[in-house]
Predict the 3D structure of the following.
Amino acid sequence: MGCNAFVEPIIDEAVEKAVDEYNNSNPLAERVIEVEKIVEVPVEKIVEVPVEKIVEVPVEKIVEVPVEKIVEVPVEKIVEKIKIVEKIVEVPVEKIETIAPTPTPKVTKLPNEIDQEWDCAPSSEECKIASGQSTSTYDVSPSKIYDINLSFISGYKASELKIDIDLCYPHASPCWQTYGENGFAALVAQPLLNDYTYAEEKWIPSKAILGWDGTIIYTSKVSVRTPTEWFYWTYDPIITITDPEGNISNYNFKNWKAVNTAQYTIE
């Protein structure tokens, strides 16, 4: 509803009053006509034009353009880089599986090709005396068993070797009372000290167990039992070992002194 509906009655009323009072000669009639022109034109322009421009244009530009660019581009690039990593992992695995190790041939020796050695503990008193590092005596008693810190190393088991000992040397035998007994030496196997350099562990079908193929280097410990009723002299015992091939190895102890605290020693 326009402003003319309110303005026109007011103007008509004012015109009528002006005509009656001044016989159409009053200048107010002309002024009223000017008011009609001033009021009608500005109101239409202010209301219609600004509202349309503010609402329509800015909203479309803000919503449509930025969202499309942010979502679409980065996701495609990240997926492509992950595919490159998969290719790097596949290549090395194929190369490693094709490499075949070169087997090393096992060196073997026969038992009689193994060097035979005596091993006397250098820190023991009896071994220091035997090697000449000490000039003292090694006191022993009759009818006792001694671990003399001596071992024999060879390609044969302890059970395959023959061992003897002369506990009277340099005196004549027998060196004990006639009703007494001679002493002896024995070899004791030492499995934890064996050397398997020239042997290889294999399955033995006939025994259904794992066994060793080749030559084992055996270490056997020497134990000595002294004679009963042994004369109280000083001795240089000699130990002799003979292998299955007839080879002989000797070891000579020194200054073994037979003692008994209950009797005097005889020199």
